[in-house]
């Protein structure tokens, strides 16, 4: 019987993902001054133990001002490398591919940790030491009433930021990550350049779609140059803003083709988030609700895509791959609930009767138990 699509290896440049299951990047808001710690090791490590082919670390800021909250990870200094190395060594040791998402929060920076309110920092946060900072964006448009108004970036600031993205890429490489994703989604800095709702500039970084894509493409190009040629580069896009007169699928297809031309290897197709919530108001949120974006991008540009969003079990994931929606499947919240999601998917697809995909510390016992039970 041929291997199910979900458990076929995925070669990307010189890196081979052992299967198609990727941990979606998920902010933990648990770093101090950008440094990874035991939380990140255990949080990410459990997915390598759980059989994920690729474990992607959360949105990691290229400068302190680019953090969403005080608890975000950072890669703006060489001293951030060593604690992340501990994480990548562990993930690689279990046969999974360590990846990281590189980000700048733009006008959505300087926020509360979600469990403290998920809004702008307030007096209660200040008293705990979480002070606000000044934020930047393509245009001086705040997220909403009560949110900090960002400063419009000058062209010199933009060049400086492109440089910071490429420096962070070199640090990600030094930390041992074998794949890097550009966070171009959810209304953060890059996405806010793409969308005509948040980018009202009338210089070369604004105006028509070509101008609004310039920042994303400059970043992709510079990161591609910094990343060793055998390591793949992903780009996460909000395929649609889901707001009137916003970025839409026809824009995503054009961007994906341009990104492919500068050496991006996978488009990770998310959506929404421009005005606060991480999903669009217009997209009905059912299982696999964003997968059609991945399919359209893949069919129009022949670039590999990753589907994400309410992909709940192995059978659903397998069907998405078999039906040509995507090449990779990212699992977010369901993985928070079940770090062994990939092993359960293998079970459902009858892939691992002898528990060989499990770390031997568990697999040996589980195999022995299942054979003993079969003998009864
Ligand atoms: C706790 C949490 C943190 C998240 N942080 C990020 C992030 O750092 N970068 C990102 O692009 N998306 C982030 N997301 C979105 C997820 O990557 C994913 O796209 C979303 O949760 C939908 O997939 P799911 O239905 O499998 O959870 C986050 C989601 C959650 C639940």
Notable features of this structure?
single chain; 376 residues; alpha/beta; TIM Barrel; binds flavin mononucleotide
Kindly describe this structure:
The protein contains twelve helices and 13 strands. It has helices spanning 38-49, 81-93, 123-127, 155-174, 189-194, 209-226, 249-261, 291-301, 314-322, 333-337, 341-348, 360-375; strands at residues 10-12, 15-17, 21-23, 54-61, 73-74, 97-103, 136-137, 151-152, 179-184, 233-238, 266-270, 305-308, 328-331. The strands form three sheets. It has an eight-stranded parallel beta barrel with strand order 3-4-6-9-10-11-12-13, surrounded by seven helices. The protein starts with 9 loop residues before the first strand and ends with a helix. Flavin mononucleotide binds at residues 24-27, 58-59, 101, 183, 185-186, 236, 270, 278, 308-311, 331-334.
The helix fraction, in percent, is 25-40%
CA-based gyration radius: 20 Å
β-sheet strand percentage: 5-15%
The small-molecule ligands in this entry are: flavin mononucleotide
How many distinct folded domains? 1
The CATH topology assignment is TIM Barrel
| Structural class estimated from helices and strands | alpha/beta
Low-confidence stretches: none
Q: Care to count the β-strands?
A: 13
* Gross geometry: globular
User: CATH superfamily assignment?
Assistant: Aldolase class I
Q: State the end-to-end distance.
A: 28 Å
């Amino acid at each position: 019987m041929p291997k199910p699509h979900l458990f076929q290896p995925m070669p990307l440049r010189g890196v081979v993902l052992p299967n198609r299951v990727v941990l979606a990047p998920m902010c933990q808001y648990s770093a101090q001054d950008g440094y990874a710690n035991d939380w990140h090791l255990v949080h990410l490590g459990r997915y390598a133990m759980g059989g994920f082919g690729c474990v992607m670390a959360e949105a990691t800021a290229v400068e302190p001002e680019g953090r969403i909250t005080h608890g975000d990870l950072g890669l703006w200094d060489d001293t951030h490398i060593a604690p992340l190395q501990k994480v990548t060594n562990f993930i690689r040791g279990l046969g999974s591919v360590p990846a990281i998402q590189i980000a700048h929060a733009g006008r959505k920076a300087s926020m509360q940790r979600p469990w403290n309110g998920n809004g702008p920092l307030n007096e209660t946060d200040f008293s705990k030491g979480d002070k606000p900072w000044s934020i930047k964006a393509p245009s001086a448009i705040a997220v909403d009433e009560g949110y900090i108004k960002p400063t419009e970036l000058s062209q010199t600031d933009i060049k400086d930021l492109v440089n910071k993205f490429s420096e962070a890429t070199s640090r990600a490489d030094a930390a041992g990550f074998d794949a890097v994703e550009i966070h171009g989604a959810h209304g953060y800095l890059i996405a806010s350049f793409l969308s005509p709702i948040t980018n009202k500039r009338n210089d070369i970084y604004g105006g028509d779609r070509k101008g609004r894509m310039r920042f994303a493409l400059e970043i992709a190009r510079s990161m591609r140059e910094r990343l060793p040629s055998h390591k793949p580069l992903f780009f996460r896009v909000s395929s649609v803003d889901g707001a009137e007169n916003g970025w839409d699928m026809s824009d995503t297809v054009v961007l994906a083709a341009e990104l492919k031309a500068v050496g991006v290897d996978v488009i990770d197709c998310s959506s929404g988030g421009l005005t606060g919530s991480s999903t669009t108001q217009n997209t009905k949120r059912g299982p696999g609700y964003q997968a059609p974006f991945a399919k359209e991008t893949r069919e129009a540009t022949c670039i590999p895509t990753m589907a994400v969003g309410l992909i709940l079990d192995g059978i659903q994931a397998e069907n998405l791959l078999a039906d040509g929606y995507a090449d990779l499947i990212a699992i977010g919240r369901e993985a928070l609930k079940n770090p062994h999601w990939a092993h359960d998917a293998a079970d459902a697809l009858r892939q691992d009767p002898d528990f060989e995909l499990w770390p031997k510390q568990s697999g040996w016992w589980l195999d022995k138990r299942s054979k003993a039970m079969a003998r009864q």
